[in-house]
Each structure stands twice: as C-alpha cells, then as structure tokens.
Design goal:
With 126 residues, this protein is an all-alpha fold. It contains 3 helices and no strands.
C-alpha cells in the first residue's frame, strides 16, 4: 500500500480507525433498535422522576448562587488535582524552590478568585 507510506499515511490510518469506530457504534445502535421491544403505553410515556408523580407545571426556577457554589467547588477540586502531583515533584532533587514558587503563584490565583467571590458576597448562604 503505497499511499500509506507517505506524509499522509498516518492520517489514513487514523481515518480508517475512526470510520471503524463510528461503524461499530452505529451498528450497535442499529442492532439495539431492531431487537428492542417497542410497545408504548400512556403509562410509559408519562414523566417520571425519583418516584414522584408529576404534579403542576414542569417549570422550576433555581437561584444563581447554587451555580456559583458549584463553580467554587470545581475551583477547589482543580486546586486539589494540582496539589497532589506538586507534592510529589516538590520532594525530587533540583525542583524545590522552582516548584515552591510556581505553587505559590497558582495558589495566589486561586486566592484572588476566592477573595473576589467573598467581596461580591457570593459566599453568604442565605
């Protein structure tokens, strides 16, 4: 296969593997659609969530502060993800002061975000 030896040879391999993956995925969905039973009833078509029958409208308003708490959680989770590898590299010889300075710069950015949230009174749970 001469076309796979040139510059675009690796791209052809990636494209072929991508097409095989899409084919397997689409084939699985098609087989599932052909084999599943399809008997819709009114009971099966009603909205169901957490064992509670649907009552009233489907519109529920949530406050923005819950999303802000979620974002703050993500910030702390990302902080923890970076702290663990940093702790392992910090003990390696030759990386002490460099990694210490880098981590303090990183923690300063995190602290600025938390300070901003605190100044905007986002952290008050009311």
């Amino acid at each position: 296969m001469a076309f796979m030896d040139g510059y675009f040879g690796s791209y052809v391999v990636v494209l072929v593997l991508l097409l095989i993956g899409v084919g397997i995925f689409a084939g699985g969905l098609f087989v599932n659609r052909m084999l599943r039973p399809d008997r819709p009833t009114p009971d099966k078509l009603t909205t169901y969530e957490c064992g509670v029958d649907p009552v009233g409208e489907g519109w529920a308003q949530s406050q923005v502060r819950y999303y802000v708490f979620t974002y703050l959680y993500v910030v702390f989770a990302v902080d923890a993800v970076f702290l663990f590898p940093w702790a392992t590299v910090f003990s390696a010889p030759g990386f002490g002061m460099t990694t210490l300075v880098e981590m303090f710069v990183f923690l300063a950015f995190i602290a600025l975000g938390i300070l901003y949230a605190w100044r905007k009174r986002v952290l008050a749970w009311t």
